[in-house]
Design goal:
Layout: E1 5-6, H1 9-16, H2 24-37, E2 45-46, H3 50-57, H4 61-74, E3 77-80, E4 84-87, E5 111-112, H5 124-134, H6 150-162, E6 172-175, H7 178-189, E7 195-200, H8 204-212, E8 216-223, E9 226-227, H9 229-239, E10 243-246, H10 260-273, E11 276-280, E12 305-309, E13 321-324, H11 330-337, H12 346-357, H13 360-384, E14 398-402, H14 408-417, E15 420-421, E16 423-424, E17 437-441, H15 446-464
Parallel strand pairs: 1-2, 5-15, 7-8, 7-10, 10-11, 11-12
Antiparallel strand pairs: 3-4, 6-13, 8-9, 12-13, 14-17, 16-17
Helix pairs in contact: 1-3, 2-4, 3-4, 5-12, 6-12, 7-8, 7-11, 9-10, 13-15, 14-15
Length: 480
């Protein structure tokens, strides 16, 4: 299932950009290492010849020769006699193969689109390097920060200030990811039997965190065209929920973006019902069409508890999230939190503080890459699978695709046999159904998205024509 390809000298030169020239060979090797590591240059790709890259970069032949030698020495390239220099990574493809997420034979060779999270953008590695130089200053203390490093709390609070929601640092709690944040909120604000309103379809891991605290979920539909506020009003009257879990910013999985008018109306409905909004903003920083984002939901409902995440904006391996709470609620959250964990790792908090200090520098590059991948996926589906329906989201990470019939589970099973892993609609259903849908993230490089669509088209033909191999489907673990 591996896809061997070549990268042109011009493309390589564009990707490495203005690399460090002190010395040039080391800067070029470092730049190529990052490109290979984050997937912008795929594994098994043939690099340009030394002569071609020398001409494209305008450097000496010795610079390229020594850079390629450094790549080979560190395990990021290999020379094949008579064929050229090809990319690899230390430990091979299986280095990123988690046995919980990809447990089946051949999984690590498949195109994994079950996980809606991308590789790290440029700038993350530099932030780690800078943070490592600061870390020893914290070794003299105990290392526990249940609320978060003060400098990171302040940096996160500043992002809300910039979005029109004044926030003090002591309103922020840093957590080991957004799911941990959801679990803390559920622990603090719900008890056995309490009702929590959730969207359907919805991110399943978040609802599991809420349910684990003993709460009972009440689903309200999010239609292919967006939120039905009439249905929300009816659900609030019928269930009187304590909390309502919402994803107004590029909703997972539909990709919908709630307008300011809808936020104001939704907030009014919650206020009348006495229900507190728990708003998941994991995708908020990923508008892909240059649009201005609506103000945070909490600007319309001051008692809102907001959950944020670094995983989609930067990298899933960073494993940091946070809670922005109204004044007066942090003690309650802290009491709930210490029963679950005692804080997020200091190193990662230093990394995120560095990334936030860079402003849009890292995120803009990340958005550019995601936009290209989104557009490639959409174009491929329109060309090869014209009977599939979807609305192109203006941001986020995935398409919510409606099939001509309730064949989502059958399609995902057949697609897996053909080396591409996606999630069927029922995974996202709060109360069952949705087998007419599949979620397809645009989180892989464009040429990989092309190959994924080709395989999905073949799988769909087999399912539609009744030629798919029948077997008992088994659920996969989902993390994003």
């Amino acid at each position: 299932m591996s896809m061997s390809t070549a990268i042109s000298p011009a493309r390589t030169a564009a990707l490495v950009g203005d690399f460090d020239r002190s010395p040039a060979y080391a800067g070029l090797a470092d730049a190529l290492t990052l490109l290979i590591g984050d997937g912008r240059i795929g594994l098994g790709t043939r690099l340009p010849s030394e002569r071609e890259l020398t001409d494209a970069l305008g450097v000496s032949r010795t610079t390229v020769t020594r850079a390629y030698a450094a790549l080979r020495d560190t395990g990021y390239a290999e020379a094949r006699r008579g064929a050229g220099t090809f990319t690899r990574v230390p430990g091979g493809r299986a280095r990123a193969h988690d046995r919980a997420l990809l447990p089946r034979a051949g999984d690590h060779e498949a195109i994994d689109l079950n996980c809606a999270a991308s590789s790290a953008p440029p700038g993350v590695a530099a932030a780690y390097a800078e943070a490592a130089t600061e870390l020893p200053a914290y070794f003299g203390g105990h290392g526990y920060f249940p609320a978060g490093l003060p400098e990171l709390q302040a940096a996160i609070a500043a992002t809300y200030d910039a979005r029109g929601l004044p926030t003090a640092p002591d309103q922020v709690m840093v957590t080991p990811g957004a799911l941990s944040a959801a679990a803390i909120v559920a622990q603090a604000f719900t008890g056995p039997g309490d009702r929590v309103l959730v969207e359907s379809p919805v991110y399943p891991n978040a609802t599991l965190s809420i349910r684990n605290g003993g709460a009972r979920l009440a689903g309200v539909p999010v239609d292919p065209d967006g939120w039905d506020l009439g249905a929300v009003a009816a659900a609030l009257r019928q269930t009187s929920p304590r909390l309502a879990y919402l994803i107004p910013d590029f909703q997972n999985p539909t990709g919908h973006l709630m307008s300011e008018q809808q936020r104001e109306q939704y907030a009014a409905l919650l206020r009348r019902a006495g229900t507190v909004a728990v708003v998941d903003e994991a995708h908020q920083a990923l508008p892909l069409d240059g649009q201005e984002m609506p103000r945070p939901f909490a600007a319309f409902a001051p008692d809102t508890i907001t959950i944020g995440s670094a995983s989609k904006t930067y990298w899933g391996g960073l494993r940091l999230g946070w809670i922005r709470a109204p004044h007066g609620q942090m003690d309650r959250l802290t009491q709930a939190r210490v029963g679950l964990d005692l804080g997020a790792p200091v190193m990662e908090q230093l990394v995120l503080a560095r990334l936030l200090a860079r402003g849009a520098e890292v995120v803009d590059v990340h958005r550019d890459r995601l936009r290209e991948q989104r557009d490639r996926l959409a174009a491929g589906l329109r060309e090869q699978l014209p009977d599939w329906r979807f609305r192109l989201p203006a941001g986020g990470l995935a398409l919510w695709v409606q099939l001509p019939g309730p064949l989502g589970t059958a399609l995902t099973d057949e697609a897996e046999r053909r080396g591409v892993i996606i999630a069927p609609g029922p995974v996202f259903a709060a109360e069952g159904g949705l087998d007419q849908f599949v979620r397809i993230p645009w989180t892989r490089p464009p040429h990989v998205m092309d190959e994924a669509v080709t395989r999905l088209a073949a799988a769909w033909t087999a399912v539609r024509d009744g030629q798919a191999t029948t077997r008992r489907p088994s659920a996969r673990v989902m993390v994003a």
